[in-house]
Design goal:
The complex is a heterodimer of chains A (about 700) and B (about 120). In chain A, about 75% of the residues lie in helices and about 0% in strands. In chain A, helix 24 packs antiparallel against helix 25. Chain A has a domain of about 450 residues. Chain B has about 120 residues and is an all-alpha fold. Chain B has one domain: Helix Hairpins (Orthogonal Bundle). The chains are: A mainly alpha (about 700), B mainly alpha (about 120). At the A-B interface, helix 23, helix 24, helix 25, helix 26 and helix 27 of A face helix 1, helix 2 and helix 3 of B.
């Protein structure tokens, strides 16, 4: 059966050829190591250290598994692992309501995407004929078939929720309630990249499909612009960083839909991962030291240490991509790609320039702006009558200081790898230089314009965020889902066992009856055996006894009738060549009648509990259920399959197990472990019964 | 015979379900036992049912193993019978004790661990 569902499923081959020379794999492990060291410093003297660090390592491993997974279902497994661990990590400060809500939101959105992704991957595996990514990438499919559109839509839904592309961007900025190591690691370097990484994996398959191309271009492009603008509106350092991450993910998605853009996507993933996690860790340092991550508040602080200024400056240069940093080469790849993609269409180029300038402003605001400019600091000092309240700067662990520096250096060092692949054509050089100059010029211009309306813009951002994005787009929807869930639960699960059972049975009747109706044309295919009179008597006895046990008003009578049903079954087993079953059934049934008769003897009489309408309703349901089961029985008569298992067991009984009774050999030899389990179930039941019987109940108050 | 068997198994399931939908807890356990018997017969029926050919091999030389009745379903049912015996007897003891404490066998009143009646 399993073979039919997953014809190409192999449980053990996880990675296949994808592990060899995989830069993403090395990158993820490197960032994991850095983050763990940083987290060690960050959570010094905090009880959260033992909670966060193991989870960070587990997360890093699942992310590493995700980038090397070759089998689609392993890919899905690691994908869901990252969702679960990120849920736990976002909720690091689970004492706070905000933290719990944000982590729930992230799990909610990525979980919904995960379901859709699973469906998409299964369909992809089934219709491509292979569950191996490396094999799927080499094939060509007829993408005109409608099933491929379904697959693409399902996969894309999973991808955009995970990567926080529009319209599911909301969880990413909210996830910033997590501590800096988590935000830096999960929500910039790795987790949100999972979606775009999957896009690059699938790009060779779908790149010629208009649906794939257009939807990614549209959503990714919108996200890039949205993130760049929203980041401008934020005063919270981490939220601003989160929006720039969103914007960059959009950019990567924009390039990654086609195989030609793979180089751009990968170099951006690496470069962005390095400089963005470094920026987050830097912000973490600032937050720890000055106990604030508000840009305006930080500007009023008098004492920013020189070290922080230096780090901020160098990270800014890493981010904007001055020569000899990783992002320099990433941008160069991007320009090459655009020139090819849009065939010298300079409108696209202008848009790209403006976007880059916006991003520059964002990075400037986050990494440089709060720590320079003494004028506002002096103003603040003069305004307060008591003199400037000099806040004592908290000391931080050396490990925290080291890691941003390490990441910044590796951002420079990684250029050796990236620059090897750059092929500079003479014609491109001119464009590239123009582009860079244009970006820097525009950046300066826009920054001074923006600076005048700084406060206005920030107020706007705050309102937009709390009113529209959080309350309207997410909270209301969530409340609606909750309402539907409550309504549905009240109908289906109202707390009475028999209603649960009724629901269950009705569903069974519909599903079972439906599938029998649709899929079974003829019922009896087996040659019908003739009716023997003594068997007829036994069958009639069973039916009558069963009715007796149901309708009788005496408890003893119904127990004895139950025994009669069992005995009848036992005789039937005997007729139809199952002596072992007959023996066992006979034994257990005798015992159960004795046990029940003893135990139920002094219980109160059956009382009339149900009304007549209840009985009629239950009777109708029971009749239909019995009818469906009868039809099922008739349709399974031709289901006698001589499986490989049975064949092997029959053939091996004498030579290997040295037994003649096949049933006994199966139970005691081939499936001995199962029988051991069965014995332990019985033993547990026996111990439980003994324990229960030893309890003396308070009856008549004669016990203390 | 097939039609008769189908009728019998259907009856067992139907009556078992009817008993399980009652409010008396004793009736519920009787219903479970009935459905258990029906289920065993259902599995038995799905296998190769033949008269008088038990799956006991005479010697090393097997002439036609497919004429024997199905040993696999038989071992499955054997396990099921034994387990359902364990479950029913444990359930019987539990019900006995619960009814002693609470003085009722109506499951709608079994909402508390103390005697509420």
């Amino acid at each position: 059966m399993v073979q039919n569902i997953f014809p190409n499923f192999n449980y053990f081959d996880i990675t296949g050829p994808r592990i060899e020379n995989n830069p993403l794999f090395q990158f993820v492990l490197f960032i994991t190591a850095c983050t763990v060291i940083y987290g060690w410093g960050y959570f010094e003297n905090s009880s959260k250290r033992n909670y966060v660090l193991p989870l960070l390592i587990l997360f890093g491993l699942s992310m590493a598994g995700l980038v090397i997974a070759n089998h689609l279902l392993w890919l899905y497994f690691f994908w869901e692992c990252t969702s679960v661990f990120s849920y736990l990590l976002i909720g690091t400060y689970y004492e706070k309501k905000e933290s719990r809500e944000s982590s729930l939101q992230a799990l909610f959105i990525t979980g919904a995407g995960g379901l859709s992704l699973l469906l998409g991957l299964l369909l992809l595996g089934e219709h491509s004929g292979s569950y191996y990514l490396s094999e799927i990438q080499l094939q060509h499919f007829n993408l005109e078939e409608p099933i491929w559109s379904t697959i693409v839509v399902l996969l894309l839904f999973g991808i955009i929720t995970k990567s926080g592309l529009l319209p599911f961007q909301g969880w990413l900025p909210n996830a910033m309630v997590a501590p800096a190591p988590v935000s830096g690691f999960l929500h910039s370097a790795t987790l949100v990249k999972a979606g775009v990484i999957l896009i690059t994996f699938l790009a060779p398959v779908f790149q010629e499909m208009p649906l794939w191309e257009n939807s990614i271009l549209l959503l990714a492009g919108l996200t890039a612009w949205y993130g760049a603008f929203m980041a401008l509106l934020q005063n919270d350092l981490k939220k601003a960083l989160a929006y720039t991450t969103s914007a960059t993910i959009g950019l990567i998605g924009f390039a990654s839909w086609t195989e030609a853009g793979n180089l751009v996507a990968f170099s951006w993933i690496l470069a962005h991962g390095l400089y963005k996690s470094a920026s987050f860790y830097f912000v973490g340092i600032i937050e720890k030291k000055y106990e604030s991550r508000n840009i305006l508040k930080l500007r009023k602080l008098f004492s920013i240490e020189f070290f922080d200024k230096i780090i901020g400056f160098s990270l800014f240069f890493c981010c904007i991509g001055i020569p000899f940093t990783a992002s320099y080469y990433a941008k160069k790849h991007l320009v090459d790609f655009y020139l090819n993609l849009f065939q010298q269409n300079y409108y696209a180029f202008v848009l790209c320039t403006i976007w880059q300038s916006l991003m520059l402003i964002n990075y400037f605001r986050i990494l440089v702006f709060p720590y320079i400019g003494t004028r506002e600091r002096y103003q603040a000092m003069h305004e307060s009558a008591e003199g400037f309240q000099e806040k004592s700067v908290k000391t931080i662990s050396i490990w925290m200081k080291v890691i941003p520096v390490v990441l910044a250096i590796s951002s420079v060092l990684s250029t050796f790898k990236l620059s090897q692949r750059v092929t500079i054509h003479a014609s491109d050089v001119g464009i590239w230089e123009y582009f860079t100059v244009a970006v820097y010029g525009l950046f300066t211009l826009l920054f001074f314009m923006f600076y005048r309306y700084h406060h206005f813009v920030n107020a706007l951002g705050k309102k937009l965020y709390t009113e529209i994005l959080w309350k309207w787009c997410y909270k209301n929807k969530l409340r609606m889902i909750e309402k539907i869930a409550i309504m549905q639960t009240n109908i289906v699960q109202n707390g009475y066992l028999r209603y649960y059972l009724t629901m269950f049975v009705v569903a069974t009747i519909l599903l079972l009856g439906g599938s029998i109706y649709f899929y079974s044309e003829t019922f009896i295919r087996k040659p019908v055996t003739e009716i023997l009179i003594y068997e007829l008597i036994i069958v009639a006895m069973i039916i009558i006894a069963a009715f007796m046990s149901t309708i009788t008003r005496s408890r003893m009578a119904s127990i004895v009738s139950l025994g009669a049903v069992g005995m009848g079954c036992s005789v039937l087993y005997l007729f139809y060549s199952a002596p072992d079953l007959a023996m066992t059934q006979f034994l257990t049934d005798t015992l159960i009648v004795v046990v029940m008769a003893l135990l139920f003897y002094d219980l109160p009489r059956y009382s009339r509990l149900s009304s007549k309408t209840d009985k009629i309703r239950d009777g109708i349901i029971a009749c239909i259920f019995g009818g469906v089961i009868s039809i099922l029985v008739l349709s399974v008569t031709d289901a006698q399959i001589y499986t490989e298992v049975m064949d092997t067991m029959l053939k091996k009984t004498i030579p290997e197990a040295r037994g003649h009774n096949v049933v006994n050999v199966i139970l005691a030899d081939f499936r001995a472990i199962d029988t051991l389990g069965e014995i332990s179930v019985l033993t547990t039941a026996a111990i439980g019964m003994y324990g229960l019987l030893r309890i003396r109940t308070k009856k008549g108050g004669d016990e203390s | 015979m097939e039609l008769l068997f189908a009728l019998m198994i259907g009856t067992l399931f139907g009556l078992g379900l009817y008993m399980m939908l009652r409010r008396s807890i004793v009736k519920i356990i009787i219903g479970i036992s009935l459905i258990g018997n029906g289920g065993n017969l259902l599995v038995f029926f799905a296998g190769n049912m033949v008269r008088g050919k038990p799956p006991i091999l005479k010697d090393d030389h097997i002439t036609n193993i497919y004429s024997l009745s199905d040993p696999l379903t038989q071992s499955l049912i054997l396990t099921a019978i034994v387990i359902s015996f364990g479950v029913s007897s444990f359930g019987a003891v539990l019900i006995n004790k619960a009814c002693e404490v609470l003085n009722t066998d109506d499951i709608d009143k079994l909402t508390d661990t103390d005697n509420s009646c």
